Amino acid sequence: MVTPALPGSVIGISRELMALRVAAEIEDGSYVNLGIGIPTLVSNWIEGRDIVLQSEIGMLNTGPLAEADQIDQDLINASCQPVTELPGCCYFSIGESFAMIRGGHMDIAVLGAMQVSEKGDLASWNVPASGRGKTGNIGGSMDLAVGARKVIVITEHVTRTGEPKIVRECIYPLTARKCVNLIVTNLAVIEVVSEGLLLKEIVAGLTTEDIQAVTEPRLIISPDLKELAL
Amino acid sequence: MVTPALPGSVIGISRELMALRVAAEIEDGSYVNLGIGIPTLVSNWIEGRDIVLQSEIGMLNTGPLAEADQIDQDLINASCQPVTELPGCCYFSIGESFAMIRGGHMDIAVLGAMQVSEKGDLASWNVPASGRGKTGNIGGSMDLAVGARKVIVITEHVTRTGEPKIVRECIYPLTARKCVNLIVTNLAVIEVVSEGLLLKEIVAGLTTEDIQAVTEPRLIISPDLKELAL
Amino acid sequence: MNRAYPSVDEAIADVFDNATIALGGFFTAGSPIRLTEALANQGAKNLTIIVQSVGIGNWEVNMLLENRQVRKVICNYPFFRSASRVSLFEQQLRAGEVECEVYPLGTFIEKLRAGGAGIAGFYTPTGVGTLVAEGKECRAFNGKEYLLELAISPDFAFVHAYKGDPYGNLVYRETSRNYNPEMAMSANITIAEVENLVGPGEINPDQVHTPGIFVQRVVKVDRPDIDVTIEVSPEEMNT
Amino acid sequence: MNRAYPSVDEAIADVFDNATIALGGFFTAGSPIRLTEALANQGAKNLTIIVQSVGIGNWEVNMLLENRQVRKVICNYPFFRSASRVSLFEQQLRAGEVECEVYPLGTFIEKLRAGGAGIAGFYTPTGVGTLVAEGKECRAFNGKEYLLELAISPDFAFVHAYKGDPYGNLVYRETSRNYNPEMAMSANITIAEVENLVGPGEINPDQVHTPGIFVQRVVKVDRPDIDVTIEVSPEEMNT
Fold first, then answer.
1. Chain C residues 137-156 with CB within 8 Å of chain A
2. Whose C-alpha in A217, B86, D81, D208 is 20 to 30 A from the C-alpha of C3?
3. pLDDT at C154 over 80
């Protein structure tokens, strides 16, 4: 186990800026599902763009969170938050929603992570230390990880206690194997390629060695390595 | 092969009265699908009753055939006939329609037959003599035969050339095995029971021997044998 | 065809001990609160409850858990999001008083649809290579691996709709549709609580979401309007 | 998101030789006549056509058969009802010029839904013990036998809707819905001809039948109004 040199909580970009970086990754004309947690922050950065958000509870063209007088108990997202409609909106059942997800119709899923492996395996639903055994909050995560054409993970680079979250093999129970395409953290942008993990962007002021120090598997440094731009 | 003593075309009740007899078999509150052909005649005898007709093209509470000025090209049944709506009507996709049928939600399917065996096997979609080989017009027949809670066959007792249609084993390709519950013909009403075929009603003026003469398997004569009443 | 019942109590009176019951809805949207209340009063025991969650998302299950009516829960999101918050269900589960079966959400709903559609089982790519695959057949089609998952057909489903008619035709509103259509299909007896009970012919037939054939009983209820925002801290939702 | 195309010809221009195309609709209801006409003009060859029937029910397939554009048909009702009437398709089939694959209707549509929903295959009771079971896995679940049937995902689907918007959201009218929703789900590229093309937000979101995510192209067409009653004799319908 690498001893992290840089506690993730004190450096790097904020969750909001991580979300902004993910938003820049999404092409116009895309259908996108934002997982529960940090991924929902991405929605703040794509307002007005030609991107359709799916809420897996059964909605396309989900709008921003509802303000006080817009709140409608029948109109919520998968995080129990009241939301609004955008033009072109439609509703459907959960069965049809997951037909969309599993059937390969979603262009992008943005998911949180507990661990991501160098092969792109994702663990996001169960921490053994929780004592919950083999049961846990799977929700839509496994379907999204398997079904979306592109999976972007947005996560702090290390845990609160400084352990790497980007690991050689996931120790936590898997969400899906070989599903992650891109990892955006508070420190770096890393693409999962067939040879391993390609470090493409790093936050200003950090070196590739800094990133490697808090990343368990050996990183491939991109010949086009750039500063993470927002 | 039994040599039929009674050509079906010259005796017994009409198709309209066969349909009336089937209508009497349908309890109020039932969901019913009427197959293409003779079964559609049943609809003439249940108007005003509390019976919901499904059209497998995707409709519940199908009404009578449309008159000239009611004809709407978007509102047809599975026999390509323009139909009408009854109150309580709803439309749905073919996928949902066959979920209903296969999922055991239809109380009764009324089907035509080429042959019915003493075990209740049904053959209704392919006459080898047609030269069509193993392909043929299956349509919804197999799903209805398998999925409906009760399958009533309505058929002439013998073929146009006088061959029995109620046989020991179906020679024609099967629609489904052991699916038929009741057979209503121009001569008799026969229930398929675990012991075989139970002759329950016969047309006025005929004897059980007359019916047996045009029926290949040995009939069990019901102790409550009645005249077929309309 | 008149499937309307005069009260929720009469609509659920015959729910029996050991029954399996699917509960539609999620959080404030489309949850059959009134029917679940009635079931808590009715007292049937040893129930298997099929529901999205037993944390915040479907807090109404707590009414049954408090009564010790639940033997098992089949769901996709059993716990509070935060591992540090322990729900009544999690307490009972850790104490061995209830059982829990978890499926990925898409598998969960597809099992119910299969049950309603006469499909015995289906091959899904979801869960391959995970704990979900334990004890299940894994099989490759066109070079990709899939798990065999089997249908579920509950004895009862409780659903909530915006509008219904005496034929059982239902119309949902916005995201309150969610689990309700597939659960309505899946059950032997589906009981719908509806905010508006209208006459036959008053629902546009092109706009029916659940055809009446899937709904055996309909009962008019007051629209539940329950503020559960107190349960959800912003910190919890964004962690 | 603007998925509207200016003409049927442009909407189908990239259909390639050897493509698999699902055609929705049945008889006068919901058949994509204008797109099929355009395909007959465009001339792609060696096509596999997935359609309910090639008799009276979907006479538009004749346009493609006359042009010799069809290599294979996958359907559930291939022939005229009467064995004495031989369609153009049956002639070509008997002459070995086209192939034919027939499935029970429920299996046919479920294979398409599975293709759209990421399900590799499913177990259906339909067809057990019949010619349909030949070469297929038969397996018992809870003492009842089922056949394994596999998903179909066509390259294209042509569907017809009453109304559509630039997002691809579709509304069907009455029984013209039929095959269209599942076919729209199933295909890589779904092209919808619509009688009315309206702006975003002009369709009530609770009343969308096919969510736009399943529809890649939308094109406004004149409502086909074709009298085919001459083809259907009463004798034929009731035999």
1. none
2. D208
3. yes
Residue C129's alpha-carbon distances to A79, C143, C181, C235, D180, in angstroms, are: 27, 15, 30, 32, 35
Average pLDDT, chain A: 93
pLDDT score for C85: 85
**Per residue in A34-70, pLDDT tens?**
998 899 999 999 999 999 999 999 999 999 999 988 9
User: What mean pLDDT comes out for the span A205-217?
Assistant: 95
Query: What backbone phi and psi angles, to 5 degrees, belong to A179?
Result: -115, -20
E strand or H helix that includes residue C182: helix C180-186
Distance from CA of D218 to the nearest CA of A (A): 14
Answer yes or no: A85 catalytic.
no
Look up residue A177 and give its two tokens: 């194997």
Q: What are the backbone angles phi and psi of residue C92, rounded to the nearest 5°?
A: -65, -35
Q: Is residue B33 part of a domain?
A: yes
C237: its two tokens: 């939702």
Q: Are strands B150-154 and C138-141 parallel, antiparallel or unpaired?
A: unpaired
Of C40, C32, C77, C82, the C-alpha closest to C57 is C77
Residue listed under structure tokens 């598997």: A217
CATH pick for D4-123+153-222 out of 3.40.50.1580, 3.30.1330.60, 3.90.550.10, 3.40.1080.10: 3.40.1080.10
User: What's the structural domain count of chain B?
Assistant: 1
Q: Convert the pLDDT of each residue in B28-62 to its tens digit.
A: 999 999 998 899 999 999 999 999 999 999 999 99
Per the model's pLDDT, the better-predicted residue between C2 and C227 turns out to be: C2
pLDDT bin (cut points 50, 70, 90) of residue D232 is: low
Cα distance between residue D114 and residue D186, in whole Å:
7
**Contact across the interface for B138 and D124, Cβ inside 8 Å:** no
What residues does D148 pair with on adjacent strands? Answer: D123
Minimum CA–CA partner of C110 in chain A: A95
CB C111 within 8 A of CB C120: no
Please give the interface size between B and D, counted as residue pairs whose CB atoms are below 8 Å apart. 161
The pTM of the full predicted model, rounded to 2 decimals, is 0.96
Alpha carbon distance D136, B189 (integer Å):
37
To the nearest whole Å, the CA of B6 is away from the closest chain C CA by 42
| B20 secondary structure, DSSP code | H
**Residue A201 near residue A225 (C-beta atoms within 8 A):** yes
Instruction: Provide the domain limits for residue A55.
Output: 15-218
User: % helix / strand / coil in chain C, to the nearest 5?
Assistant: 30, 25, 45
Decide if B168 is inside a domain: yes
Mutate to test the interface with D, among C105, C111, C152, C206 (most CBs of D within 10 A): C206
pLDDT at B203 over 90: yes
- pLDDT tens for residues A144-155? 999 999 999 999
> Above 90 in pLDDT, residue D55?
no
Which residue shows structure tokens 């719908």? C192
Amino acid residing at B79: S
User: Over the stretch D195-209, which tens digit does the pLDDT of each residue have?
Assistant: 999 999 999 999 999
What band does B229 get if pLDDT is binned at 50, 70 and 90? confident
For position B177, which CATH number holds?
Answer: 3.40.1080.10
Q: State the best of D174, D207, D222 to mutate against chain B, taking most chain B CBs within 10 Å.
A: D174
Q: Which residues contact D91 (CB under 8 A, 6 or more apart)?
A: none
| CB spacing of C105 vs A175 below 8 angstroms | no
β-sheet bridge partners, residue A85: A62
Q: Which of D27, D34, C207, C212 is nearest to B76 (CA)?
A: D27
- Residue C228's pLDDT is 56
Which positions 16-55 of B are in contact with D (Cβ < 8 Å)? 36-38, 40-41, 55
CB contact under 8 A, A100 and D206: no
Among candidate residues A56, A118, A201, A216, the one labeled active-site is: A56
Name the DSSP letter for residue D94: H
